[in-house]
Amino acid sequence: MSTIYIVGAGCGDPGLITVKGKEILDRADVLIYAGSLVNPELVDACPATEKYDSWGMKLADMTDIMIAAAQSGKTVVRLHSGDPALYGAIIEQVDILHTADIDVERVPGVSSFFGAAASLGIQYTLKGVSESVVITRPAGKTLDEDKIAELSALGETMVIFLGTEQLEQIMAKVHYPPETPAAVIYHATWPDEKTVRGTVADIAQKARAAGIEKTALIIIGDVVNPDGPSYTHSHLYG
């Protein structure tokens, strides 16, 4: 059975692809990559003789290329941004490939969810502050209804993908107190990374003033406090 590799490229910095992911990328014959979401350094370094930018491609067009190449014995890599398990829309690809009797191996990548935490210098789960992380997205073209209001009522750390364009509406619907710390981080780990800190009450205004309109993560919760939240020491070091 032929195998196609779905590889997480990491969140921007080309060094954040995994060792396994880079090894597979280095022997690809055919590369299909996620447009501007993947650092071009990785695309340029890949030795594949066939490279396809998947931006604007229909699912059937993309999988047809993958299936034909795999069936002819070529090593095919589908390079996703971040980690493909988070908003990667990979299951529909996998289902089509399995129908064609092609196996799929998934290689995790470093999500922007983690890259943003590193850039901000925060810890999402912090004893005495937040024991959970809610990862979600707002309603939009591909989602009729979201649960941001309900989930925010839990009071835990919240990370919102795909919501920069709706930043004002999101902050209006969350149930956090207005003074709750918040951050917006554009292009986490990329050279042009831009970070804005504020509160639920003012983060939208600050992000717009900084020119952030898309491709950013929204993080809400006391763990974002730039002065350092008051936390309980872990038993790990007891």
Account of the protein in words:
With 238 residues, the chain is α/β, with parallel strands linked by helices. 26% of the residues lie in helices and 21% in strands. It has 8 helices and 10 strands. It has helices at 19-25, 40-45, 59-71, 91-99, 112-120, 148-152, 167-173, 203-209; strands spanning 2-8, 30-33, 50-53, 76-80, 102-107, 133-136, 157-160, 181-186, 194-199, 216-220. It has a 5-stranded parallel β-sheet with strand order 3-2-4-1-5, sandwiched between helices. Strands 6-7-10-8-9 form a 5-stranded mixed β-sheet, sandwiched between helices.
Q: Please state roughly what percent of the residues sit in beta strands, choosing from under 5%, 5-15%, 15-25%, 25-35%, 35-45% or over 45%.
A: 15-25%
Total helical segments: 8
Secondary-structure element sequence? EHEHEHEHEHEHEHEEHE
N-to-C terminal Cα separation, in Å?
51 Å
The counted number of beta strands is: 10
Biggest β-sheet, characterized? 5 strands, parallel
Report strand order across the widest sheet. 3-2-4-1-5
Helix content: 25-40%
Q: Please tell me how large the radius of gyration is.
A: 20 Å
Low-confidence stretches: none
How confident overall, as mean pLDDT? 93
**Which geometry do the CA atoms define?**
elongated
Oligomer: single chain
Judged by helices, strands and strand pairing, the structural class is: alpha/beta
Key traits:
238 residues; 5-stranded mixed sheet; 26% helix
